[in-house]
Amino acid sequence: MTWEIVIGLEVHAQLSTNSKIFCGASTAFGAEPNTQADAVSLALPGVLPVLNRGAVERAIRFGLATGAHIAPRSVFARKNYFYPDLPKGYQISQFDLPVVGQGALTIQVEPLSGNAKPYEKVVRITRAHLEEDAGKSLHEDFHGMTGIDLNRAGTPLLEIVSEPDMRSAAEAVAYAKTLHALVQWIGICDGNMQEGSFRCDVNVSVRRAGEPLGTRREIKNLNSFKFMQQAIDYEVQWQIDTIENGGKVHQATVLFNPDTGETRSMRSKEEAHDYRYFPDPDLLPLDISNDWIEQVRATLPELPHVKQVRYVNDLGLSAYDANILTASREMADFFETVLAAVPKDAKLVANWIMGEVSAQLNRDGLDMKQCPISAQQLGGMLQRITDNTISNSGAKEVFRTMWAEGGDADAIIDAKGLKQVSDSGAIEALVDEIIAANADKVAEYRSGKDKLFGFFVGLAMKASKGKANPAQLNDILKQKLAG
Amino acid sequence: MFESSLKQLGDALRAKKISSVELTQLYLDRIARLNPELNAYVTLNPEASLAQARAADQCITKNEAPPLTGIPIAQKDIFCAKGWRTTCGSKMLENFVAPYDAHVIEQFNRAGAVNLGKTNMDEFAMGSSNETSYFGTVKNPWGTARVPGGSSGGTAAAVAARLCAAATGTDTGGSIRQPAALCGISGLKPTYGVCSRYGMIAFASSLDQAGPMGRSAEDLALMMNAMAGFDERDSTSLQREKEDYARDLNKPLSGLRIGLPKEFFAEGLGSDVAQAVEAAIAEYRKLGATVVDISLPNTRLSIPVYYVLAPAEASSNLSRFDGVRYGYRAPDYTDLTDMYEKTRAQGFGTEVKRRIMIGTYVLSHGYYDAYYIQAQRIRRLIAQDFTEAFKQCDVIMGPTSPSTAFKLGEKGDDPVQMYLSDIYTIAVNLAGLPGMSIPCGFGSNDMPVGLQIIGNYFDEARMLNAAHQYQLATDWHSRAPQGL
């Protein structure tokens, strides 16, 4: 029996505003408990919410980046329930009229096993809505009691809901990673998963091929891609086993335990709340004008998928290269700054960044932002390759020096005497000397032992201390050896 | 001195005929004598009041005095005032000391007024008789066996009994106008959004509005000049230019078109109230106004609509009183749910619990469309009735309340009977319009009758003009209860 896996995601992206969504309290991470909780965060009697324009702008950016409809009028609703870290007794969210409507995200999926090839897929986004985060309950620090920290209460979130379009853990992870990269790319979320800035709820169900959708269970609050994959794998197997053993899957909310690698039911549908949503009478409907949308659009950076197409069509890069070079804003910016120095040699730039630069970064455990060589410096060095000032091997030495000690390419080339010899007279003299000194080998070569060509190249390079222009040297050697 | 208008008090203070400290002390002494019987105040803080009075006296000496400087004004106990106990009439907030000022309080501080004390009210402003207050009912100064009306009953009684120069109230379904009528004083509920709700403990957010209560329309205008104004901390606060609400007080009324809605003079209206209101209309004709018959056909639906929407909002607004962060928490409980249940069972009174239950019900899954959505639709129809009516007239007049003050305990067992006492006032809140009540005579039991004046949006100055001209021609507003 073949099983089909159906997965949908709800992602909470914390928006990168300095203050909360409905008041001026700070959103900075890591402050002492309750030091960033003002009267509004504490829900003191009589306080009222005032919407943060910056949060709305970030939601608009997201909508534009996913080709979604931005609602000209959306409504904030109250989601009512009691919990100690929910100070008002309701969460202000959006319900039937969200700010961002249907959109889509194109993802590149790397299959996890077998010989399957990477493929592209479009995942539909149902909606994205603005809401406030709740506070935090601290269970460990207080014996027999629970501490409440309301620093987080009111932090702006964008909840991004996908259609159940994913068919494997690999697709779910690829979608989450693409979304994670995108929200950082457009500058609306710092993407810090350890600090809870990007959290995923995963809805999983299984069905026999061709049958209607199975009952789903929701895995809450996954904050690592690795855990997401493990949780989905476990959950899928659990659901299949349950059904194959004659059992039934009941709708439930489950938590993933990274220590055991298992999911465990938190509450069943029977315990589900009636949230009694209704429009928040303290907030007017959110009106977004076309002008505002266009203003935001004008500040939107070129998006990764647009760049990818441009890199392939205009720069002649492979789809693979284009994908890697647009993995993050930093990476793409670095690439384009280097490219500006050698505009005709995109492949050379791509090879250096994906080769030497990435390898060194990996080795030193750094990310693009921390790269000790600036894009301008690398561009300067590549210019010296394309204008034949240095050879490839010379360039590698320049690069190593730059990485370790800093400095510009020209200064290093001068200091190390790496300038290649492109004077044909000098190279001819050198070649003549070698031919004269190795008459026996020359004879062997001329009698058909072609392999000896490398031997002469080596000798000539050694004699020039590696500075001879390799192409020129080859030409001259060939000519002279031919007799 | 206790009969002086706000303007007269201001003049006397500036002329140094009396100091604010002396004036404040006079009021405090009168409160000490009369409040034990009337129960109009729930919290007094003579030291804080006198400190404000001393500061006011200094301002006057330096000739820097804003309009209400040194005048003792009482505040309904629904407004958070920094350092003052703010109870909202509930055991839930019996010991809550507000750490910040409501916008209205800030505005009075800016105007130089002295906060004389916090006045009693129905619990969380839910009630029409002041009998739901945790701090006991307020007695009507015109007859202490009778209710003062609600929910701003403490304010109405304090003004009527001359226990303050003027005071604030709030009006969600008639809570300024009905007690003003029952206590024989003047009260104004402004257009929704004119006074900020920031710091005013929420009952039903889309209906609540703060307003002044005082002895005359002229006093209300001065109060409005202090209270009104845009506040960026309230998203429903309206961004408008500063108005002078006293600017039109002296305009003659000739040509004023008064609409009389036939629905306000139908079954259920006490004949003594009807007579007093009709006499007032006759007076207006004498002053040059013309009268048009109008209809507000959907008014009859305003009470059912109100008792869907107001409890719905209240059930959510009152969720924050959960015993976790401030206010009352039950002393004994077994777990979190038990803590919530006991705290709210013990902390809220019957009427509040009743409305939370209604609100929770009408918002719950499966009933939302039938109740909440339907009520919002009818709310729009009610507002449209007024829009149509104002094409034919400048102001609408009628009774404020169907009867004069009823006896304490008379309607306590029948909430629906109690709800009907707001039958003429609720539609105004649903539409967000301004409305006021001024005294216009006495009923068969010698209790005051109120005339309601309803204006178009932002027409407060015109309404105050109509009320002031009437008060120049009559003396109902200057009569005070005897024997106090």
From TrEMBL, chain A:
Q: Which GO terms describe its biological process?
A: glutaminyl-tRNAGln biosynthesis via transamidation; translation
Catalyzed reactions per annotation = L-aspartyl-tRNA(Asn) + L-glutamine + ATP + H2O = L-asparaginyl-tRNA(Asn) + L-glutamate + ADP + phosphate + 2 H(+); L-glutamyl-tRNA(Gln) + L-glutamine + ATP + H2O = L-glutaminyl-tRNA(Gln) + L-glutamate + ADP + phosphate + H(+)
Looking up InterPro entries in the UniProt record yields: Asn/Gln-tRNA_amidoTrfase_suB/E, Asn/Gln-tRNA_Trfase_suB/E_cat, Asn/Gln_amidotransferase, Asn/Gln_tRNA_amidoTrase-B-like, GatB, GatB_C_1, GatB_Yqey_C_2, Gln-tRNA_amidoTrfase_suB_CS
SUPFAM superfamilies reported for this sequence: GatB/YqeY motif (SSF89095), Glutamine synthetase/guanido kinase (SSF55931)
List, alphabetically, the SMART domains matched.
GatB_Yqey
GO MF terms held by the record: ATP binding; glutaminyl-tRNA synthase (glutamine-hydrolyzing) activity
Query: For this protein, what is the EC number?
Result: 6.3.5.-
Please state every residue range assigned to the domain named Asn/Gln amidotransferase: 333-481
Q: Name one Pfam family in it.
A: GatB_Yqey
User: Which family does the record claim for this protein?
Assistant: Belongs to the GatB/GatE family. GatB subfamily.
Quaternary state and interactors? Heterotrimer of A, B and C subunits.
Q: Name the job this protein performs.
A: Allows the formation of correctly charged Asn-tRNA(Asn) or Gln-tRNA(Gln) through the transamidation of misacylated Asp-tRNA(Asn) or Glu-tRNA(Gln) in organisms which lack either or both of asparaginyl-tRNA or glutaminyl-tRNA synthetases. The reaction takes place in the presence of glutamine and ATP through an activated phospho-Asp-tRNA(Asn) or phospho-Glu-tRNA(Gln).
**Stated name of the protein:** Aspartyl/glutamyl-tRNA(Asn/Gln) amidotransferase subunit B
The species is: Ferrigenium kumadai
From TrEMBL, chain B:
Catalysed transformations (reactions):
L-glutamyl-tRNA(Gln) + L-glutamine + ATP + H2O = L-glutaminyl-tRNA(Gln) + L-glutamate + ADP + phosphate + H(+)
Which stretches are transmembrane?
A: none
Per the UniProt entry, the Enzyme Commission number(s) are 6.3.5.7
Q: Where does the record place the catalytic residues?
A: 76 (charge relay system), 151 (charge relay system), 175 (acyl-ester intermediate)
Which Pfam families does this UniProt record tie to the protein? Amidase
Entry keywords, A to Z: ATP-binding, Ligase, Nucleotide-binding, Protein biosynthesis
Q: Could you tell me the Gene Ontology terms of the biological process aspect for this record?
A: translation
Q: Which PROSITE patterns match?
A: AMIDASES (PS00571)
Question: InterPro entries from the entry?
Answer: Amidase (IPR000120), Amidase_CS (IPR020556), Amidase_dom (IPR023631), AS_sf (IPR036928), GatA (IPR004412)
How does it associate, per the subunit comment? Heterotrimer of A, B and C subunits.
| Family per record | Belongs to the amidase family. GatA subfamily.
PANTHER family per the UniProt record, alphabetical = GLUTAMYL-TRNA(GLN) AMIDOTRANSFERASE SUBUNIT A, TRANSAMIDASE
In Swiss-Prot or TrEMBL terms, this protein is called Glutamyl-tRNA(Gln) amidotransferase subunit A
Q: Which organism is it from?
A: Ferrigenium kumadai
